[in-house]
Amino acid sequence: MKExxxxxxxxxxxxxxxxATDDHRVAFAYSDAWLENGFAISPFSLPVERKVFVPSGxxxxxxxxxxxxxxxxxxxxxxxxxxxxxxxxxxATPLERLAIxxxxxxxxxxxxxxxxxxxxxEPSDLDELSAQCQALLSHAxxxxxxxxxxxGGSSGGARxxxxxxxxxxxxxxxxDMVDVGLMEKEYMDCAAxxxxxxxxxxxxxxxxxxxxxxxxxxxxxxxxxxxxxxxxLTAAAILETDWRTxxxxxxxxxxxxxxxxxxxxxxxxxxxxxxxxxxFTHNRDDHAKNFSWIYDPQLDCWHPSPAYDLTWSTTYxxxxxxxxxxxxxxxxxxxxxxxxKVAGVAPKDCRRMADEVKETAGYxxxxxxxxRS
Length: 373
Fold this sequence. Notes:
Strand content: 15-25%
Shape: globular
Number of domains: 3
Radius of gyration: 21 Å
Helix content: 25-40%
């Protein structure tokens, strides 16, 4: 591979160029065409200007966060590493990894020239795929490594998963209860009942468990028989912070939502309800990659994406990854109301939304805590 330069596209529009620097960073410059009628692909870091943007830090291996969002993490990275090793390659630079992603990444960015490692592949026997994933997590040899890579090599998150053009299908990770898919489906259905926007979800049949959780991709839009990609950014990318080490506060997420959405009240309330849901259902893995925004070309702003990765979860330190008014250990109503007040949401509305979420979803934390004890 040995890529030193990549061209960045959205559909057939040339966004700009990425190039490796001598000090192991990745510089970016917009194309002339994008400068004429494009938008800032990262609203704070990469304004539409005629200049070469060079990252000052190494949070994303010397890249800007928006491009790191295209790369897989955890499960997808494991697949890429195993695939590289199977081909006798021990290391790939960030640019080379983007070339591996090519046209298959989450969001709308595409990278050329691409290493055509991804092919169209549809899942067949999900139980067999799940078993292959478990074997890979156990460091066993996997006969269908190429098939797994083609279906999951661009995915993020810790749990094994595969992606089709329209769906993300998840399998249990090591240590998960066998019916983790059923739990996530219940969480997502409950979130919808709490007034939170969530993607379409379903359970796919299995002979080994109650079903595999599937979520419709919200970085894709289907219209008139055609699927188009939608620009998407995580909070980690927007803030240029490594989600593994840097903790946020929901004050930050509410402020981001107000700025990015141009003070859209419905978007603020969506984020507030998600915060309440995470608190009352013990979803403590609420890190900066689990919050995303999708670009709205009509209004030239970014709206919060549908909520995702909503499950009973904890962290190795037992606290929320994103604190609530400074409290990660045991946030409650006082902290929730404080965040809403600073964000400019009417106190009576904050109290009403928090009460509604607690009444509708509060049972989940106790139910699944008991199952995991």
